[in-house]
Request: fold
Amino acid sequence: MSTHRLRFTLNGTPRELEVPADRLLIDLLRDDCGATGTKLGCGIGVCGACSVLVDDELVSACLLPAVFVDGTAIVTVEGLASDGALTPLQDAFIRDGGFQCGICTPGQLIAATALLAEQPRPTREDVRSWMMGNICRCTGYYGIERAIQRAAATR
Reply:
């Protein structure tokens, strides 16, 4: 099987790896880079647990072949906090009960980060529509919605 040398930035750190041509981004992140905050949920791109930002675009890491990230900047949940300080969104998730078991939380945080970058003051309907691609079995979504609204209010 052929391999590819990839150069990319992961959470602000330059990386260079040789990977098999069929490697998925989720496996590159978790197995090759140790970024285990990104979770594998459904494996077919519908649950949102593997959501990451690639050049500020929200993507499902379980669907994207790793070769497509050559030359890009990737942000995972590990890259949200700065110098150990939580973002207002992460803080709001804690305060408003936006997480329970933690399986979907990384993807929820990444998706909400993308939402707030695109729509700094989203309506409740905007939040619900945007976050539909992220499934959570624990919270009932109200805590997630409250957390996103709280974070938006701090901007």
Q: What stands out?
A: The beta strands are 3-10, 13-20, 51-54, 57-60, 73-75. The chain has a mean pLDDT of 95. Residues 105-118 form the longest helix (14 residues).
